[in-house]
Amino acid sequence: MCLMDAVSPLQAYERAVQRGFQPDQAQLQAARQLQACYEALADARGRAQGVYLWGPVGRGKTWLMDRFFESLSVPARRQHFHHFMRWVHKRMFELMGTPQP
Q1: Nearest 10 degrees: Cα torsion 76, 82, 86, 89
Q2: Residue 4: what pLDDT?
Q3: pLDDT digits over 43-100, tens only?
């Protein structure tokens, strides 16, 4: 996707609904939270807080996160929570015994 084609997370959700995506109140709420994070990241003075999405399989969490990631203009790495936690535990084990890691 070209940077000029990038849209915000909330815009992506709204466009999907306009194209026939089934509206969902929980997804809209998540899109709004991702939008707030997106705006804070875009504002150099802003302090971005993270967003943690959880819920049953098939609710659209991955789709929303993919739209959020695509919208970013700052360096970022897209990683699933379980992969991230596996990396954290691996690094903790590797650093065991290291003073002030």
Answers
A1: 90
A2: 43
A3: 877 677 888 898 999 999 999 999 999 999 888 888 888 899 999 999 999 999 888 8
From residue 43, alpha-carbon distances to 2, 35, 38, 70 in Å are 21, 12, 9, 17
pTM of the model: 0.76
Q: Are 41 and 8 in contact (CB under 8 A)?
A: no
Distance CA 67, CA 64 (A): 5
> What tokens appear for 11 in the block?
């815009």
| C-alpha–C-alpha distance, residues 49 and 51, integer Å | 7
